[in-house]
């Protein structure tokens, strides 16, 4: 009973060869001895820890950004990576379309701002570290509040409601007296810690410590998310994404798990917002444009929805590419002005040639095929 | 009575899909629900499994009123449906799909035992255990859906069109397996367009027309009923 039927032979195309090439890389990775994988992983992580040091990145040729402080750019990129990892739980694993993810980021940042800044009306002036867990908890609560009425519904409602949520937060930030609009909150405290000589770890000029902090948290979050996806929770999420009715028919409490995915994604965005506020020292309504939500969603899809590595690569590449355009002139035109045009072009090209993303999830790729078949059958 | 449905009506928006349906399934039976396309067969199944809320009427399972119970909790009570057509998880392998069937259970030994039993019932699935569900043929997907439902060790197995889109050879095979599952002690409620096979295998059957039950009786009675013959068996 172990015979298998070979698939019918057909001529190889260039695309097939490419696919096989990539397949070979992933095969080699999966079949490599454990220690080889560990060494590679440690090397990659070490590379990213070293990256913001000028002594290191000046030898990296075109990688540093010409028009902006590369260390600052790396901090922005790291925040986007963290956001992409979080949104990937919602969109990639549970298959829920969240168009207002940046709204949770704003909730996190504003929680920190309101509770720590001297310009806030409540004047609590709490230290940053104390407020971080509060910010995470509050974003989670806002996720649950938003999710409870909408996640019972199917399909596009959630996308619309989340879109509305992000706009509500933004407009509240712009016009509410309590949230200070454009004037914003200043003197938000930095994370704690100081060197032996009394200089703080987290200062104003050097972005590196913040980047390292975010990088470390990304690693911790990724480990956590990985463990979750390999558990019953992860299986439930994947089953909901693949076929919600079938998941329910197998006894998966779909609403509960959708809410969980939504809340955990929100919590990660809240953490990112708190980190951002602690670094920036200043938060105002201009930090939270709707476009940011779209960029993160695009990053997750670009990288390969449903795959943690894909989300990391997508978030990193997208945030980096946008910054990379700064300071480049072509025929007297500053390319940075047209960054979203290029961004859009890249996305369109991607969706035509590789709709499943750069590094797709194996399952997700199979689902894509299945859906295409369904469309053809349905016609 | 294992399952008792009384006067159940169901609406899709403003369209009434079921008009006061009543039916019963006794322990150990195979009960068939036959009818034409759009008669409300699958809708009845959805009402029983809890995917669709009913507008009025009651559904009782093993004596308990489950009319308002959530679908996933009904599975825990021992009521499991193999959904119609492509209701498998396309990105999961055959084994992962079967594993999802046992989602509500935690008894490892029992699950392993049932897995062996399912793979024994469906040797094709054993051959393809590592393959993604979406890459299976229609017949194999159907078997996977039935096998997956069995993995929850249901008291009542709901089968929605298990023979749909299958070659005649496979139809025979799947009905043989259905009888076998029943003889091993699982009660079955079966929805079918293939009335011939369904009536021949079922202890009792109901005929559904535009959301109403118009006839009921033993499988053999209905098989020989002139009006059923004319409408569903293609015999004048």
Automatic annotation (TrEMBL), chain A:
Keyword Oxidoreductase: no
Keyword Cell membrane: yes
Main location: membrane
GO function terms (MF aspect): branched-chain amino acid transmembrane transporter activity
InterPro entries assigned to the protein according to its UniProt record, in alphabetical order: ABC_transp_permease, LivM-like
Compartmental location: Cell membrane
One GO cellular component, as annotated: plasma membrane
UniProt KW keywords: Cell membrane, Membrane, Transmembrane, Transmembrane helix
Regions that span the bilayer: 35-52, 72-94, 101-119, 125-145, 157-175, 210-229, 259-278, 290-323, 335-353
A Pfam family matched in the record: BPD_transp_2
Membrane topology field: Multi-pass membrane protein
PANTHER family registered for this protein in UniProt: HIGH-AFFINITY BRANCHED-CHAIN AMINO ACID TRANSPORT PROTEIN BRAE (PTHR30482:SF10), HIGH-AFFINITY BRANCHED-CHAIN AMINO ACID TRANSPORT SYSTEM PERMEASE (PTHR30482)
Protein name: Amino acid/amide ABC transporter membrane protein 2, HAAT family (TC 3.A.1.4.-)
Protein's organism: Micromonospora marina
Automatic annotation (TrEMBL), chain B:
Pfam families named in the record: ABC_tran (PF00005)
Domain of life: Bacteria
Molecular function as annotated in GO: ATP binding; ATP hydrolysis activity; branched-chain amino acid transmembrane transporter activity
Any single GO BP term: L-amino acid transport
Residue ranges occupied by any ABC transporter domain in the UniProt entry: 3-235
PROSITE patterns xref list: ABC_TRANSPORTER_1, ABC_TRANSPORTER_2
Keywords attached to this entry: Amino-acid transport, ATP-binding, Nucleotide-binding, Transport
UniProt record similarity statement: Belongs to the ABC transporter superfamily.
PANTHER family membership: HIGH-AFFINITY BRANCHED-CHAIN AMINO ACID TRANSPORT ATP-BINDING PROTEIN LIVF (PTHR43820)
The protein's name in its UniProt record: Amino acid/amide ABC transporter ATP-binding protein 2, HAAT family
